[in-house]
Write a structure and sequence with these properties.
This protein has helices at about 10-25, 35-45, 65, 70-80, 100-105, 120-125, 145-155, 170-180, 195-200, 205-210, 220-235, 255-265, 295-300, 315-320, 350-360; strands at about 30, 55-60, 85-90, 110-115, 130-140, 160-170, 190, 215-220, 240-245, 265-275, 280-285. It is of the alpha/beta class. It folds into two domains: about 1-315, Rossmann fold, CATH 3.40.50.11740; about 315-355, no CATH class. Strands 4-3-5-6-11-10 form a six-stranded mixed β-sheet, sandwiched between helices. The protein has a five-stranded parallel β-sheet with strand order 2-1-7-8-9, sandwiched between helices. α7 (about 145-155) packs across α12.
Amino acid sequence: MRFVDEYRDAESVHRCARAIARATTRPWTLMEICGGQTHAIVRFGIDELLPEGLRLVHGPGCPVCVTPVELIDKAVEIARRPGVILCSFGDMLRVPGTRGDLFTAKAEGGDVRVVYSPLDALRIAQETPDREVVFFAIGFETTAPANAMAVHQAHRLGVGNFSVLVSHVLVPPAMEAILGEPDNRVQGFLAAGHVCAVMGREEYEPIAQRWGVPIVITGFEPLDILRGVLRCVEMLEAGQPGVDNQYARSVRDEGNVHAQRLMRQVFRIIPRKWRGIGLIPRSGYGLRPRYAGLDAEARFGVAGMTAEESTECISGQILRGVKRPHECPAFGTRCHPEHPLGAPMVSTEGACAAYYRHRRFARSEA
């Protein structure tokens, strides 16, 4: 199909790979910040086309993967309550918490439903006024506009049996947290095109200048990713920090200003805990006081729940680009999709799931 095949054309891909090899004169480490890009890299073997010394590592770009374990526990607790319908995207059902997962809660009799939009959950609430309907609102800036719209509509229409369990996280603060880690080795970023389609490029400029790194807004097809890598290498080789847009067919500098306006109306910026990483200041969304009545944590009294992550899962090191999935001792043995120790093995955007599916028998790098 047009707009897909042209970005998977083998000749164009290899031509771009050769250009990257010519441009690379020293070792560099780049991080793609999006789980969709991670799966494309692993599926198509894009990293295997790169010259020796140019390394791609995988970042915290999977919203399912970074949802903290205590939010999973809260969702499971709510789902087990009588009279509750908990609606979620399908990826969340197998993510392990310390008290089981949503799939188990469903098997035990909880009314857990997979939906494709938060507006589907709102419709269910309107159709079943005698039940409490909760939507598990996760994601980066990409899914925030639709979730904000569901909250706005529920508030406007006075749907009193609808609430949201919010676990929204923001990409730029996570990038700064990674750059500030003492074991950081990331020298340039491939930024997620769909996040930037909503938010634009403005938030990335201060990061690029403060940390002296190139940030290249990149798409999701093989040629998109290789062009992003090429531009990032060119900027590194020239000592040129800054933000470059290699996904101009979808991303405008200002982003989607209408979506941003709605998000600002519904959400406020708060600290958020990231699974495997910890608390990052100003890295998430919470509901503004006007919409506090739609906050499921307060409505069901679970706001104070805390939980400790598995010490066996090294998802934090994987999400920060310090290690790759097959470098985990549990990968493919004690941790696999049917019995995951952590979220990166569950999600369709998780790095561990990508390696398990496409490189299960790969050996750890030296």
